[in-house]
Amino acid sequence: MTSEFSQTSSNKIVFEHVSVHFPLLHGQSVRADKNTAKTRGGTLVTKGARVRSLTALNNVSFRIGQGERVGIMGENGSGKTTLLRTLCGIYYPHEGEVRIRGRVSSMLDLHLGFDNDASGRDNIWVRGRLLGYNSAQIESRIPEILEFSQLGTFLELKMKVYSSGMRMRLAFAIATSFPADNLIMDEWLSAGDKAFRSVAEERMVGLVESSGSLVIATHNPGILRRVCQRGIILHRGAIIFDGACEDAIEFYQREIVLGGRNKRELAPLVGNAENEPLTEPTLVEPQALLDRRLSDLESITAALHAYFADMGHYPTTEDVWFGIGRNRLPPEEWIPGLVSSYLDEVPRDPAGMPGLDDPQYIYKSDGEGFKLLALKTGDVDQVRELGMLSAIDPKRPWAYGSWTEGYADA
Amino acid sequence: MPTVSESNASLTVESNLQKQIVYSSGPSTFQDVLSDIKDGLSRTPLWAQFATRDLRGRFSGAALGSLWFIIMHLLIVSGLAVMYSKILGTDLREYLPYVAVGLTVWNIINGIISDGAGVFPANQVYLKQVKLPFSFFIFRINLKHLLIFFYQCTVVIGMYALLKMGPHMIMLLAIPGFMLLLLFLLSASLLAGIVATRSRDMNGLIQSALRFAFFLTPIFWDARRLGEYAFLMNFNPFYHFLEIVRAPLLGNYPTAVNYYACIGMTAITIVLTLFAFKYSMKKLAYWI
């Protein structure tokens, strides 16, 4: 085993037939449902009448070489986060083996450990130590962190006076100022303004260019294109595509985003008569993580255009509404009355889009194109950027008044 | 093709270039347990920082800040001492140090075990986002309660000064006793953490048991008052740990039975903890 490995010493990360199963403990176990409908998520494993565990990764194998930058794509619940955590050594595989050469910098949450009551400088120490660096290493990096974060004297102030942008800058500066062998990132680059994003991406690529490797989970084709060379697509815990970045994006758009029906055939199912596959997406990723993740408007809009171009026309009926959602906020927490009444009119599956039950964006088609009508967001800048005419605070539903034509070119 | 059994530990192999980390299925070994603890110890600056942050956060914004640890303890000790010296008809001068020492020692026992039982679910943000040794969180809560203990000790020292109970050579015996207690608490909190993470009901059980033990342990009452039933105290594990610290501070020698019981219980707890940790190491993240 070791000899085989040393022959291919340029491999930084090796996954060898890795499977991960989550036991359903603490009353999470539910009665098995015979309805193996078209749902997402890992495969539920039943024993008798009850669901006993959830297969989040199913026989996953890949090798990542030195200097390689790989994007992991997949729907919510497809196992991206589990894969990253297995890579970091947080989850041990139940079958198979993970081998990693060099240090792993897990940057699944850049803000983890930040203390609002401490200064930015103190927080550099906390983050640095959390990432496993010693005092000398941290001390030597402070000038660089200071320079990139552009915090100036703010570095000496308590972190509670920081804006979220400053926090992000500091977090990112810390994360990318230490030399990294293997950088593991969950989708977080979609935060921050455009200028910051491009600098951040550049810096990240530079960080791993020479000797390391980068694994990033993302939904965003843009990030994938700019940062990665290779894409791996996960579906229901198994790899269904592994190849060049552009091909992966194309495959993802075609088979996952748009080809609602086809993907069932793609999914490598495990399970037999007594081990029937069922799916339930929310069990795979902790709710907190899903809630924090911002949906990505760009990729969805691009996918929609591609889909309608593929169809040859845009829907002709004036009143076709459709929504696309990734956010798991309960429906009552957003635009009350307004969107839920639209939803009643929405055909169950108008465009083969996933996630209709809980839309993040509401579009209106007018026969020639489609327009973004409403979106659910916590980001005021996004609302402004998109030129939305009105916004509604769900905490004060009476304040929404008359809904004017909230059109914006998507 | 590597088989699972070939390398079942998260061992590191020194290669020609860089260290190789292997995460694989299969049971973990005692070597994994030791390296987790070693790794935890190497992270001392961070858990020390977290522990002090825990203390600071408790009374953050308060003008008196951490002084509240002392004030709170002073109020409880003096209130309890005055009231129970009347109820039990004992001399306050004798009773006050007894209660002060007893409560201070009990607080660290209670605090560490009760925090230990919830330590992994409480730290799931960390456990699910970054690879940290499990022992890291155990060290953190132990240090936190040790620091609270030091705060509360100032109340005891103050009372000794007030009552003009001078330092005595016997008191030094409390130090090895306290060391033994700390060792016991370190492993007991890890054991409680593992058990209560697997079965959340155990957390409730441990919390109730601790509350129950508070009344069953001679903290604010004297074991001698049990008369012919005083021997029953020998079956109370907390009694022995209390005695090996408290008795010297009150100018008495702990009994040999006290020491044997404490050493025995610490050894048993450590062995149990090692086995439980070895068994659960690769499963803990899934249990949270």
TrEMBL record, chain A:
Classification via Gene3D superfamilies: Glycoprotein, Type 4 Pilin, P-loop containing nucleotide triphosphate hydrolases
SMART domains given in the database record: AAA
Short name of one Pfam family: ABC_tran
CDD domains noted in UniProt: ABC_KpsT_Wzt
Alphabetical UniProt keywords: ATP-binding, Nucleotide-binding, Transport
Entry superkingdom: Bacteria
Molecular function GO terms recorded: ABC-type transporter activity; ATP binding; ATP hydrolysis activity
Protein name: ABC transporter domain-containing protein
Record organism: Algimonas arctica
TrEMBL record, chain B:
Keyword Lipid metabolism: no
Keywords: Membrane, Transmembrane, Transmembrane helix, Transport
GO biological process per UniProt: lipopolysaccharide transport
Top-level taxon of the source organism: Bacteria
Transmembrane segments: 62-83, 95-120, 141-163, 169-192, 204-221, 257-277
Family statement drawn from the similarity comment of this UniProt entry: Belongs to the ABC-2 integral membrane protein family.
Annotated protein name in UniProt: Sugar ABC transporter permease
Organism of origin: Algimonas arctica
